[in-house]
Amino acid sequence: MTASNEAEQNQVGTADPAAASSEGIPLLPQDETPSGSTELARELRRLRGLVAGSVYEDVHDAVRTVRELADHLEAVGKPVRPKDYGTWGTPEHIGANPAIGQRNPVSPPLEPVVFPDATVRADLELGIEYQGPPGCVHGGIVALLFDEMLGLANAASKSVGMTADLRITYSSPTPLYAPLRFEARQDRVEGRKIWASATLHAGNTLCASAEGLFVEPCGIRDHERSRPIEG
Ligand SMILES: CCCCCCCC(=O)SCCNC(=O)CCNC(=O)[C@H](O)C(C)(C)COP(=O)(O)OP(=O)(O)OC[C@H]1O[C@@H](n2cnc3c(N)ncnc32)[C@H](O)[C@@H]1OP(=O)(O)O
């Protein structure tokens, strides 16, 4: 049995981010939100893994409980709408992000760190709710995480851009339940055009690599260029 098979035997869903570790300086705030919404998102992530990764005989009680919870959250929550913040990289904006958002249960536990040369790295393991081919991460999830990592590499170099062109080479299947490492860096900037590249490894195996062209939106302001890092 391989190490990854053994992990799969013991785990349903994606590992808690605390299981991933990396050197470097955290790019994004790691604090729990005082309201508890970070914790709520974490428990909902657990639920996603359990629902996607298990079969049950009867879950009608669970359906009622979850429906009551959803009704309660709908009643007490204040929606966060883009028109209310309207800018890049504020906590309200980043919190909902599907790759790194603390409030978003869809986001995998991507906790990027930055190095002095502005390389951005994220170590993580993905569970069954991110599966594409049996035992492997879905290619669209790999693309999502690359897009985000490239965006963060741009932010680490104090620039911001919309993805204009994203090319991914899938070299080897990306395993579930195995330590993965994304590394991204900004390569060059010409006017509003920004090029960045990234790799994804499982151990020593190169699973995929990415090259992206980003275009800085017209009218972006200085303080928005590195916001995800400076909080
Ligand atoms: C913390 C947050 C991290 C976020 C990371 C996630 C990023 C995202 O998900 S962004 C969402 C996905 N991307 C999009 O929706 C983008 C949609 N496209 C657009 O909005 C526009 O086409 C946009 C902004 C990319 C470019 O439009 P515009 O600002 O009008 O630029 P435009 O003047 O046409 O072109 C500027 C330059 O870029 C080049 N360019 C634009 N698009 C492309 C392209 N697809 N391929 C190659 N070159 C391009 C142009 O040729 C031009 O080059 P040059 O200056 O040498 O002549």
TrEMBL record:
Entry EC no(s): 3.1.2.2
SUPFAM superfamilies, A to Z: Thioesterase/thiol ester dehydrase-isomerase (SSF54637)
Domain Thioesterase: 135-203
MF-aspect GO terms: hydrolase activity
Class of enzymatic activity (EC top level): hydrolase
Keyword vocabulary terms for this entry: Apoptosis, Cell membrane, Cell projection, Cytoplasm, Fatty acid metabolism, Hydrolase, Lipid metabolism, Membrane, Transit peptide
Membrane-topology annotation of the record: Peripheral membrane protein
Signal peptide: none
Chain intervals with Polar residues compositional bias: 1-13
Compartments, as annotated in UniProt: Cell projection, Ruffle membrane; Cytoplasm; Membrane
Similarity annotation: Belongs to the THEM4/THEM5 thioesterase family.
Protein's UniProt name: Acyl-coenzyme A thioesterase THEM4
